[in-house]
Amino acid sequence: MIIAIDGPAASGKGTLARRLAAHYDLKRLDTGLLYRAVARAVLDADGDVEDPDARRLAARDLDGAQLDNEADLRMPGIGEAASIVAADPAVRQHVLAFQRGFAADPQGAILDGRDIGTVVCPDADVKLFVTATAEARAERRFREMAPLGAGLTYQSVLDDIRRRDTRDTSRAIAPLKAADDALLLDTTELDIEAAFRAAVDLISGLRAAI
User: Which of 34, 40, 164, 208 has its CA 20 to 30 A from that of 65?
Assistant: First the structure.
């Protein structure tokens, strides 16, 4: 079974994907980390994510081992850089090949990101589009990142969320949007347990109808 989970930043799709992967005993790929890894590789090489050559070279050399230090990839500033990198069509082609290779496992997989159901795995058995209001997502991300310091404020996180939403939904290549056959899950008023139960119910309902 292939489960594709899409949605904007801080919608809860990553946490939900981890829970569902454990529940269904499937391997899982957070595809957003791939773009973060590319961005981090550019920055570590003292490059500029606005430089097409630098980001494309980093994408070409993408290695799964670069995803091991997830905490490092989630540091403040990497998300914004990753959003810039992800808008590059050449970068996306390199990452797309990595994603499809992961999804080709005959045992199945869960992939979460922003274009899984529409581009990466358009024939996925299950497609979920997880969303929430920008304000709710900003509050979650602020609580998550506040212990790291860096002088973050709720307003700065909200502004970053809105910028990323605009960039992700308006890019010419693989914009963030729900697949036509995706199941919608709004987590604005749900904690992770409620969101998990709702997702399992949606998946069970879909599989029973097939």
Answer: 164
Angle, vertex CA 17, rays to CA 13 and CA 18, nearest 5: 125
Report how far Cα 144 is from the mean position of its chain's Cα atoms. Answer: 16
Residue of 96, 90, 93, 76 lying closest to 36 (CA atoms): 76
Q: How far apart are CA 39 and CA 44, in angstroms?
A: 9
* Domain limits, the chain: 2-203
Q: First vs last Cα of the chain: how many Å apart?
A: 13
Tell me the CB-side half-sphere exposure of residue 192, using CA atoms within 13 A: 11
- pTM (two decimals): 0.89
Instruction: Report the C-alpha gap between 190 and 3 in whole angstroms.
Output: 21
What is the CATH class of 2-203?
alpha beta
Return averaged pLDDT per consecutive 10 residues of the chain, 210 residues in all: 96 96 97 94 96 96 91 84 90 95 95 96 97 97 80 90 92 92 97 97 90
Q: Cβ(51)–Cβ(94) under 8 Å?
A: no
